[in-house]
């Protein structure tokens, strides 16, 4: 074997078993001290899966030979188990051999495959660790809306049928799906788990996402105020209030069709969620779009610092001339 390679031994199928690590041409086991799902996830990703569940106490049987790792503490981003913090000395016996059960996905999760963008594609559903497709019988807009909302790609979408994004493989897991549109998960919708379909009927969706650079105000008592949210890559994110002032607020409000704005910080209109997409915003005031202002995309903020604005069409006491042939004449407003 190649040093650093892994194998799973003693499971009922190839995706589970006692973890064995190759060292100096021989297979050895791993002690279960501190062994958890983060460590299991690293093992499973090294083996080509997406996630893993940890087992201890020689759940998949006792190995033999050397115990080559103990006190494993992965952070979860490692590419190889040997990159994780660990000790090579141990106080273990093979009754403590560590194991894992790997999976390609979590039952009930969904994904979109084959689209030109992340927010569109063939709908695939996870069942028992494997991906399958959905038949397009009765597939419609309420079903698409549930898919898009579950994946955080907005709240509506266009239903696609007849393998619009290409034919999938594997099992067809759902048929005759009839969502009301309010379900949290696609698998909560009324459906049949038996089908009369082929993959030429695989269902898909195109989610209705926001346009990058567009703005919205959320959480205010009316439409002219709220937490500032900016669309980036099809999803809404917030703006940190570091250096946030009325000049920045003015740019936001003019982009939204108002004349002026007042700045608010410290999540005055409530905390958002998702990404914080801008920090240290410093507009000069003449920008047409907030994204034209000097800013950073890295941040040191939490959502307790979400920026907000209150917009207005004019400032109390100001006047203007309307309807004249020149700027210096007109009806006084």
TrEMBL record:
This is SRCR domain-containing protein. The keyword Chloroplast does not apply. InterPro entries: SRCR, SRCR-like_dom_sf. PANTHER family: DELETED IN MALIGNANT BRAIN TUMORS 1 PROTEIN-RELATED, SRCR DOMAIN-CONTAINING PROTEIN. The lineage of its organism: Eukaryota, Metazoa, Porifera, Demospongiae, Heteroscleromorpha. Gene3D superfamilies: SRCR-like domain. Residues 6-103, 110-208, 215-312 form the SRCR domain. It comes from the Eukaryota. One of its GO terms (cellular component) is membrane. It comes from Amphimedon queenslandica. Keywords: Disulfide bond, Glycoprotein, Repeat, Signal. Coiled coil: none annotated. It holds the Pfam family SRCR. Disulfide bonds join 74-84, 179-189, 283-293.
């Amino acid at each position: 074997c190649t040093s650093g390679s892994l194998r799973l031994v003693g499971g009922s199928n190839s995706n589970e078993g006692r973890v064995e690590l190759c060292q100096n041409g021989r297979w050895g086991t791993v002690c279960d001290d501190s062994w958890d799902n983060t460590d299991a996830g690293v093992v499973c990703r090294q083996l080509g899966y997406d996630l893993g569940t940890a087992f201890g106490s020689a759940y998949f049987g006792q190995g033999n030979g050397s115990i080559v790792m103990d006190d494993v503490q992965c952070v979860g981003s490692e590419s190889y188990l040997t990159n994780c913090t660990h000790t090579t000395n141990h106080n273990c016996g093979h009754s403590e051999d560590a194991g894992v059960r790997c999976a390609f996905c979590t039952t009930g999760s969904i994904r979109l495959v084959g689209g030109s963008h992340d927010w569109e594609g063939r709908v695939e559903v996870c069942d028992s660790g494997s991906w399958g497709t959905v038949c397009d019988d009765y597939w419609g807009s309420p079903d698409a809306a549930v898919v898009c909302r579950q994946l955080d790609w907005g709240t509506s979408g266009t239903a696609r049928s007849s393998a619009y994004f290409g034919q999938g493989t594997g099992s067809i897991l759902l048929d005759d799906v009839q969502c009301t549109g309010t379900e949290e998960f696609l698998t909560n919708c009324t459906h049949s788990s038996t089908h009369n379909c082929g993959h030429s009927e695989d269902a898909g969706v195109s989610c209705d996402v926001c346009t990058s650079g567009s703005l919205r105000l959320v959480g205010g008592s009316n439409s002219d105020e709220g937490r500032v949210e900016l669309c980036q890559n099809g999803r809404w994110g917030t703006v940190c209030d570091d250096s946030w002032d009325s000049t920045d607020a003015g740019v936001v409000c003019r982009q939204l069709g108002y004349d002026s704005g007042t700045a608010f910080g410290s999540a005055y209109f409530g905390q958002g969620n998702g990404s914080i997409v801008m920090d240290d915003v410093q507009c000069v005031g003449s920008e047409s779009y907030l994204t034209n202002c000097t800013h950073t995309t890295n941040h040191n903020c939490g959502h307790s610092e979400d920026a907000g604005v209150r917009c207005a069409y004019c400032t109390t006491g100001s006047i203007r001339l309307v309807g004249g042939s020149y700027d210096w004449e007109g009806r006084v407003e």
